[in-house]
Each structure stands twice: as C-alpha cells, then as structure tokens.
Amino acid sequence: MSETRIIPLSPALRHDTGRQRLTQALARLLFALCLAGMASVSWAQALGIAGTWKTIDDKTGKPKALIRIVEQPDGSYSGTIIKSLVPGADPHRICTLCSGALKDQPMIGLTILTGLRQDAEHQHSFSGGEIVDPDSGKTYHCNARLVDDGAKLDVRGYIGISLFGRTQTWVREP
User: Fold this and answer.
1) 92-119 tens-digit pLDDT
2) What HEC string does 22-38 produce?
3) CA–CA separation, 41 and 60 (whole Å)
C-alpha cells in the first residue's frame, strides 16, 4: 500500500493574508472603477443635450457665450443665448443682421438653435435643426453630436449638405 503523506505549508504560504487582502482590494477597486465608468456614460446618455453650454469660437478658440438648450414639448431642442463671454461686449447688443422675427432682438435671450431632434439610430447624434449665426445674421442647417461622454457637443452648421459647413465644439457647463 502506498502511504499518503501530508506536506505542511511553509509559514510564508500559511500567513499570506496580506497579499490576499491586497489582491482582493485591487479587484474591488477595479470593479468599482468599471461601474463608475458605466454610470458616467449612462448619465451622459440620459442627460442628452439639454443644459447650459459654453460656445467656443472656432476661429479664435476663445469662449463666446453661454447657450441654454432645452427640450420642447414636441421633443425637439432649442437653444437660447443666456450670457455673452466676450470681454467688453455690449450687454444690450441687438441682432441687426438677423432676419424675420429675430431682427433687432437683443442678443441675450435670442433663440439661435431650433428644431434639433435626437436621431433614432444614433443616441449621441441630433439632426434636422437650424442655427443662426448672430454675428452674420445667417441661418444654417444644424446637426450636433455628443462627445467625450457628454462633456462636449460638436455643433455643425451647414448650407445644403453637411460637407459644406463648419463645426464648433461647445463645452457643457456644470
């Protein structure tokens, strides 16, 4: 008959609870970070584009204005200038170059974005809107796309097809 022999564990293996605790703590930390990442992505998706955005001039790279985007009862989004960020800008400036109902209206309170709707196929994309450039008074077709987990909004104004236009990146304000 063969004899079964029990080999005792070395003291280093028997008392390695410190290493086990560290491994368990790292595993918990990694799991928590994964959950936090998924929560921030779902928070941005749930938030959509409604909120306050800082516009950044695509030519100078400097902040221009704060825009508040709200969801309308029909499900579309509109955006209104709520504050100018241009140093020394006249707070009572009016849109002299705008046409129609926007002509000679104050810039603060001017609705420059209308009719933007979330795409059914792409949760982070919005299309079908119009945007007014208050500096030129011109109206453009508009698309927008949430980027950086909802922290930024790429807003593209164009004439005809989206290929012929320009994009501004707006930054979400807390």
Assistant:
1) 999 999 999 999 999 999 999 999 999 9
2) HHHHHHHHHHHHHHHHH
3) 30
